[in-house]
Amino acid sequence: LPPEAVNIEKKLRAIGLGAEVDKVIVTMNEGAESAVAEAKPIFVNAITQMSFQDAMGILTGGKGSATNYLRNSTTTALIEAFKPKVQVALDKVGFTKNWSDLVNTYNKIPTVQKLNPDLNGYITGQAVTALFQQVEIEENNIRDNPAARGTALLKKVFSYADTKKTN
Of 1, 66, 106, 150, which has the fewest beta carbons less than 10 angstroms from its beta carbon? Predict the structure, then answer.
């Protein structure tokens, strides 16, 4: 849930509505997880569009450089692909309208810090962030651990990168 919703969540749990809150959270997570399946063709496209200079930068750039390339070249497309999947999950529990109505009403209070009513945007952004965190973990594992380089091509490519680190 967005940070703004944490207090609401606590209050709902305190009055015995924890199961309903859990249902919303599980559904949002399922929507984000189903959206992640959309990442593969977007990543494949970014990789096939990669220039030689990009590839050399990734190879010699050290930890996180492949992730940064993907982040810079795919974030917009990932958000566009993920949003509809997340929206389906939110619509399933009817949460989007309720959240928007609640936040818009809250935002009318003159003395409060305004909240963002775009729950889909928040969840989509969090899903993309989490995806890149996992990609970076895997990338760093491949860079650090020769046993994680499962294919002959990866072994060859990263053995070249390893020699560049020591020179």
Answer: 150
- Indicate if the pLDDT at residue 47 is higher than 60: yes
CA atoms within 13 A on the CB side of 129: 6
Contact 103, 127 (CB under 8 A): no
Side chain identity, residue 65: S
CA distances for 37 relative to 43, 99, 105, angstroms:
11, 26, 35
- Other CB atoms within 10 A of residue 139 CB: 21
Q: How far apart are CA 60 and CA 160, in angstroms?
A: 9
Residues 58-78 have a mean pLDDT of 94
Q: What tokens does 54 get?
A: 């990009």
Cα distances from 139 to residues 5, 106, 120, 150, in angstroms, run 33, 43, 28, 12
Question: 35-74 burial, b if ≥16 CB within 10 A, otherwise e?
Answer: bbebbeebbeebbeebeeebeebbbeeeebbbbbbbbebb
Helices vs. strands in the chain: H and E counts, helices first = 8, 0
Given CA atoms 46, 36, 96, 25 in this order, what sign does their dihedral have? negative
What type of residue is 57?
Answer: G
pLDDT, average across residues 41-54? 93
